[in-house]
Amino acid sequence: MSTTPDTPTGSKPNPTIIEAPEGTPFLDITRDFDAAPAQVFRAYTEPKLVARWLGPRDLEMDIEEYDARPGGRYRYVHHGGHLGEVRAGFRGVFHTVEADRLIIQTFEFEGVPNEVKLDICRFSEVDGKTRVTTRSVFPSMEAREGALASGMKHGIQDSMERLTELLAEGV
Amino acid sequence: MSTTPDTPTGSKPNPTIIEAPEGTPFLDITRDFDAAPAQVFRAYTEPKLVARWLGPRDLEMDIEEYDARPGGRYRYVHHGGHLGEVRAGFRGVFHTVEADRLIIQTFEFEGVPNEVKLDICRFSEVDGKTRVTTRSVFPSMEAREGALASGMKHGIQDSMERLTELLAEGV
Fold first, then answer.
1. Per-residue pLDDT tens for B100-126?
2. What are the φ/ψ torsions at residue B155 (nearest 5 degrees)?
3. Which of A90, A122, A149, B132 has the fewest C-beta atoms lying within 10 Å of its C-beta?
4. Which ipTM score applies to this complex?
C-alpha cells in the first residue's frame, strides 16, 4: 500500500490510497474529492474533461472515441513527454454506466494486446466529499505485476492530482 | 479440479476440465472438440447456434440480442425446467472478437446486479481437435465462490455436452 498526498500546496490534501493485495490480481484505488458525485462523474464520462486529467502529467491525450454508455466503446492515445516518439493506445468497452454511481468497463493497453482488465469504479458521498473507489481486476497475477512494474502507480497519482485541480476549477 | 467425460455413448469422450485455483478469483475451463476452430467459433458467436447449447439442458434460452463484435452487446434469458417461474437474465458486452481465435467479453447475471466478470475464451487447434480454454475472472474471491455454490459447474458440463452434440450434427 502507498499513500501520497496530492493536492496543491495550501489546501488540505486528500490521499490517494493504492492497494495491491498480495497473491491477488486486484488493484484497488481509493480517493476522496472535494466535489459532488455528479461533478466527479461528469469528469469521468465527458471526453473533453477526461482528456484533461487521465494519465501522467507530461503526456498529451487524443481521444478518438469515448462513448460512456453501456455497450459504448472508447479509444485514446497518449503521446509526447517521456514517451518520445511512441504513441500509446488504449481501448475498451463500457459494460455499466450508472449516473453518479457506477462505471464498469474493460481496459486494454494496445502495447500488450489481448491482456484485458476490468475496471469497476464506484462513486459515493462520504462526509460531504465524493469517494471514488476503483477495483482493477487483471486477467492474471503476472498481468498486474507487469502493469505495476511499468510505472502504473505514477500515472494514477498524477491522474488523481490533475483531476483534483480540474474539479477545483468548478468544471 | 473435476474431470467428467461428457460425450454420447459410443464415442471417445473429451473431458471437460474445470479448475478453480485456491485463493484466486479465476475459473479455468479446458475442453477439446472434434471439429475445426471455425466451426466451434461459429457455435460461440451465431445467436441461433448459441441458443442450442449454452446453459443447463433442462432450460430454454431466449436471446434478445447477441451482437458478437467488439463493442457489441448481448442479453439472453434462461427459463423453464428447474427455474420454475423464474426468468434468469444475463448480459454483457464484447471487448474482442477475433475470428476462430479469441473472444473477450463481460458477463453479468442480473440476479446479482453489478457483479461483473470477464471471460477470455481462446480457440486453438491441438492434434486435429479444437481446444477451447476459457478463463473467467471474477471481481472478488467471494463472487467466484458464490457462482460455484450456485451450481455453475453443472451448467458448464451440460453446455459442453450440448455443444459436442451440436457440432456432431455438422452445423
1. 999 999 999 999 999 999 999 999 999
2. -65, -40
3. A149
4. 0.91
How far lies A82's CA from each of A86, A127, A147, B121, in Å? 9, 38, 17, 35
- Whether A30 has its CB under 8 Å from any CB of chain B: the answer is no
At residue B37, the 3 state secondary structure works out as helix
Nearest CB among A26, A95, A141 relative to B93 is that of A95
Going from N- to C-terminal start, the domains of chain B cover 20-57+98-168
Q: Does B108 touch chain A if contact means CB atoms closer than 8 Å?
A: yes
Rounded to the nearest angstrom, the minimum Cα separation between A164 and chain B is 27
Q: Find residues 44-103 of chain A whose CB sits inside 8 Å of chain B.
A: 70-73, 92-96, 102
pTM passes above 0.95: no
In the numeric block, which cell numbers belong to residue B49?
447456434
Q: Which CATH number fits domain A20-57+98-168: 3.40.190.10, 3.30.530.20, 3.40.1280.10, 3.50.50.60?
A: 3.30.530.20
